[in-house]
Amino acid sequence: MDSTTQKIEHATQMAVRMRKNILRMANAVGGNSHIGGGLSIVDITATLFGAVMRVDPKNPTWPERDRFILSKGHGILGYYTALAEVGYITEIELLQFEKNDSFLLGHPVMNRAKGIEFSTGSLGMGLSLGIGVSLAAKRRGQSHRTFVILGDGECNEGSVWEGFLAAPHFKLDNLVAIVDRNNLQQTGANKDIMSVGNMGAKLKDFGWDVTECDGHSVDKLYQALSTPPSDARPKAIVAHTIKGKGLKIAENNNDFHHGALTQAQLEVALKEISS
Amino acid sequence: MILNEANIKVWSTIGSRATFGLAALELGKTIDDLLILTADTSTSAGLDRFKKAYPQKFLDVGISEQNMMGIAAGLASEGTTVFTATFAPFQTLRCCEQIKVNLGYMGHKVCFVGLASGLVLGVLGYTHCAIEDVAVMRALSGITILSPADCTETVKATLAAASHSESVYIRLTGGAKAPCVYKSDYDFQIGKAIRLKEGRDVAIVACGTMVYESLEAAKILEAQGISASVINMHTIKPLDTQMIETLCQATQLLVTVEEHSIVGGLGSAVAEFKTTLCSPPPQLILGAPNRYGKSGEYRRLLETHNLTAPQIADSIAKRLKQVAPSESFLRKNHEIPMAS
């Protein structure tokens, strides 16, 4: 196996373990959590943390580390589980998710030692942070990249479009925005509530180097994330995903946007993922 | 920067916004990793010279204040010293949640400058006035609020903010040809109020343009036999509570004066602290009413809201009569013996 194949295989296996951990965490919470949007980004975060990003949990403030910003902060289950895979947090800590005094809240709270670069949760803010970080890297001649995951529902926010305008204007070829295009948002379909339409075409018009791909294919994601942008442009990946992916009862089922997972459902789901 | 009579005169002539631009030149000279961001407001912020002198330290983000505060925080998170500047309503209210989350919650340090706050842009309507900015910023955690009394203090505040430990909102009030409170150098420390005038009967605590008006009001009161202290509360948050406590022990009327709504500003901050004291004196809060009235020229609006020196003096004299109706108060303070 060459190194690329190994990386893809590693990230693929990582995504399987992450999905299992997400289900265990959602069950351990004992109430509702953001299951759907967490599961839709798992293959993206697994590819990033498992195959693409340069990070070192032993040196969490390493200046040349790649930066990750979960702008759709409610997708947190797909973030904490990736951080656990690369060694920032333990599996025991994972099960403290949303418990009193845990540092793993329902939206990320900045904690550099644990690999959490920024606090997010209020939608529409992560891209601008990423632009600031990317500008700082350019000014200092640093070579690290910044990856920002946005939700398609999140793209209802006007501030996101301010960022979409600015990043190409500043020629930030060290910035990657990944839109989790799962077509659902909190109370229904994106097309019914406030359609973002053809995200890829819009971002191309804004001056981004756009790739559209299957957001559950580690292979395709790896290719998209590893290819440098053409010209001095920021890169956008419109990742076509399924909300709740991997938990059959939750797939494209918005009841699991912020839903609960019973013990019986957990046991069935873990078997499904293993098979 | 050289703080001498000639410079103070120039700063006073050009007003607080242009003076901020000159202070920025000093920042450009002394801070390597500096970036000043504007939202298509470089000229309004007096930054045209800065832009030419330090093009690598200037960035225009276009008319996008929310984006500006996110970019500012991202840069600050990497250790860059960041200033932002745009008109006060857009610098505070438009991007309020970005300030809360990025600067307050996460603690990334950004100095953000609200231009032409208060009523100075009255002819443009209340979209361009800011009489709520202090109230809103004060409610956020982790934001220091400075309200310079004049152009010299604008320089002092800008330079002090750059090395302050947390995010700073610098609220610039007044226009060009601004009166001088300070005519020579003095000690400016964030969080430490300055007593400009001693007085026995009334203590006037003011910020921004109202410091000068209060000094003038104190002269008018003096002619009426009322002795007033005047305090420059240039830092609204954190409030110099030690100064307020000291004042409360020695006066029977505490007055706050601000070019801001009477809701949530300096007056509220002082009143909140006074609730922790056992027997504080009554307080008179002078400021703009909590409503959007007719627009108009700056001085006209100040007059409408009773914020000129003679009006401030008049309000104080009237209130003092209410709180100290008998002569006993003034007699006590002036140590005039009782008539036998």
Structure characterization notes:
The complex is a heterodimer of chains A (275) and B (340). With 275 residues, chain A is α/β, with parallel strands linked by helices. Chain A has eleven helices and seven strands. Chain A has a single domain, classed as Thiamin diphosphate (ThDP)-binding fold, Pyr/PP domains (Rossmann fold, 3-Layer(aba) Sandwich). Chain A has helices at 3-29, 35-40, 42-52, 77-86, 91-94, 126-140, 158-169, 190-194, 199-206, 218-226, 263-274; strands at residues 67-70, 146-151, 175-181, 184-185, 188-189, 209-214, 235-240. In chain A, the strands form two sheets. Chain A has a five-stranded parallel sheet, with helices on both faces. A two-stranded antiparallel ribbon of chain A has the order 4-5. In chain A, helix 7 (158-169) links the parallel strand 2 (146-151) and strand 3. Chain A starts with a helix and ends with a helix. Chain B has two domains: 5-173, Thiamin diphosphate (ThDP)-binding fold, Pyr/PP domains (Rossmann fold, 3-Layer(aba) Sandwich), CATH 3.40.50; 194-334, Rossmann fold (3-Layer(aba) Sandwich), CATH 3.40.50. Chain B is an alpha/beta fold and 340 residues long. Chain B has helices at residues 5-30, 48-53, 65-77, 88-92, 96-105, 133-139, 151-162, 210-223, 241-250, 266-274, 298-304, 309-323, 328-334; strands spanning 34-38, 58-60, 81-87, 110-117, 143-146, 167-173, 194-197, 202-206, 228-232, 235-237, 253-261, 283-288. Chain B starts with a helix and ends in a 6-residue tail after the last helix. The model of chain B is unreliable at 336-340 (pLDDT under 50). Chain B is globular and about 60 Å long. Chain B has a seven-stranded mixed sheet with strand order 2-1-3-4-6-5-10, sandwiched between helices. Chain B has a five-stranded mixed sheet with strand order 7-9-8-11-12, with helices on both faces. The A-B interface holds A 110, 117-120, 122, 124-137, 139-140, 158-159, 162-163, 165-166, 169 and B 33, 35, 56, 59, 61-62, 64, 66-80, 97-98, 101-102, 105-106.
